Amino acid sequence: MSNICRYVGLSKETSYNMASNPPEAKHHIDIASSSMDITSDKFIEVPTGLNRTLKQTREGFSSAGGNIVYPLDVNTIPFVLGMALGEYQYTQGLTVEDFNTFEFWRTKDSLLPSFVSRIGKDLFEHIFTGCVAEGFDIAVSDVITATVNVVAAQGQKTAIKSEEALNLFKQYPLAFHEVTAMYDGVDKSNLIKDFSLSFSNGVSVDTVKTIGSKHPTSTPVSGRGSATVSTNLKFVGTEEIEKYENGTIFKVEYFFDNGADGFIHIILPAVQYTSVPTTVSGQDEIVQGTAFKALEGTVTLANGTTVNTDIFVKVSNKLGEEEIF
């Protein structure tokens, strides 16, 4: 028998794939689930012309990856956003009573920062080095969940940590009633039943398969990024249908209020509907399962400078930059 002990510990790498000396976790997160593991089918078949059976295999290229799912809060999200978006600016509060502010936006650099993920799996801790964030999802329904999609260079095992040994942030997971939404400055919260936001970096470890190594040899290159949102809307009029028909580009903002612990403000400066269906069935309520994609727009940072990005996230909390990164 074993105790249930499932967590993730995160730390930034100073160089890609620090497998020989992986840094200890900067902090840990109580997770809902994780599919992080080494790849299957890492052995390649050796061709043979004798008989109809497989006679021999050799170890081939292998990597690792999967996802990490956890309840979203203002203290754990900055590290994830820093790895997934690549660019950030930190502004310290003027007094200890003030919030510190992190502003994140998508980097133009095709090489994202790499990090180490340590997944607690009851009987052992699975260490994944050379991790790169392929994407990040936020699902707003009941308790809000964050999903980090990761590609990694390789995995190794070490001893499991006890719960007492974990450096856990104070976590107050956000719930659906702490979220509001604005479309072009108009509050749409009372029309939105639920939504999910997804963004991707287009990362593949296959791009860094080379001779001389069984594992990725350098940071995988990121391709074209994307950001999309799927929303279930109450049907009260044809405004959203007309936006889709006319190809209207508009601004969307989401506010996550964690009270005294801080808040999250997500801005998609320019979006365009890709689908606004209005299907009917019997006497059931009509729900519009809309979808839109983000385009590049301009966002102004706290210091007055502007950046061009398809997604911008501002996080305010009481943590300092050194506590997260």
SSE inventory with pairings:
Elements: E1 7-12, E2 27-30, E3 33-34, E4 37-38, E5 43-45, E6 57-59, E7 64-71, H1 77-85, E8 86-91, E9 100-106, E10 115-120, E11 125-140, E12 145-152, E13 154-158, E14 179-183, E15 186-187, E16 192-200, E17 226-234, H2 239-246, E18 249-257, E19 263-275, E20 287-295, E21 297-300, E22 306-309, E23 312-317, H3 321-324
Antiparallel strand pairs: 1-2, 1-10, 3-7, 4-7, 5-6, 7-12, 8-9, 9-23, 10-11, 11-12, 11-13, 11-16, 14-15, 14-18, 16-17, 17-20, 18-19, 19-20, 19-23, 21-22
Molecular structure report:
The protein has one domain. It has helices at residues 77-85, 239-246, 321-324; strands at 7-12, 27-30, 33-34, 37-38, 43-45, 57-59, 64-71, 86-91, 100-106, 115-120, 125-140, 145-152, 154-158, 179-183, 186-187, 192-200, 226-234, 249-257, 263-275, 287-295, 297-300, 306-309, 312-317. The longest helix has 9 residues, at 77-85. It is built from 3 helices and 23 strands. Strand 11 (125-140) and strand 12 form a beta hairpin. 6% of the residues lie in helices and 45% in strands. It is mostly beta strands.
